[in-house]
Prior knowledge:
By secondary structure, the chain is mainly alpha-helical. Helix content is 50%, strand content 3%. The protein has helices at 16-22, 29-42, 44-52, 58-69, 83-97, 110-125, 130-133, and strands at residues 136-138, 144-145. Strands 1-2 form a two-stranded antiparallel ribbon. Helix 4 crosses helix 5 (83-97). The longest helix has 16 residues, at 110-125.
Amino acid sequence: MAWIIGQQKIEREKDFNEEILKIEGELNEIQAKLTLIKFLWHNLGFTVYLLTGVELLEIQEIIIKAILKRDNSLIVAARGGAKSFIISILSIIYPLFFFNSKMCLVSANFRGARRILEYTEKIITSRKAKLLRQCYTKLTGGGIVRRSPDLYK
């Protein structure tokens, strides 16, 4: 019974950075790619900074991690709580981790959806996002994320 106090399952995540420190010797190309993907997944703040040059606040990183780990998510925040910004960052990060995924942006009005897309395009076209721009094939009229070579073969 998950709704009874004390009956919830609490799963602690392993610290992946500790696992990386234990690696000895050399990795082949596939192991290196998979280790890099896992490292970037477990360090989303670093990943966002590496790709976009944007430094996330800790609460923003926690919210993005929570959204990525669950099927259904809801952000409840006050006005000015960076909801549109977080969703724009998520719209950049999500297709990079989940290949062949499609995203649909639904908003109460067109203004909200347009603001999120403007944030996204502004981040992608910024000077600091040179690495991220290499992932996109076209920007105007909706960005398409180019799939990198298959890393899981």
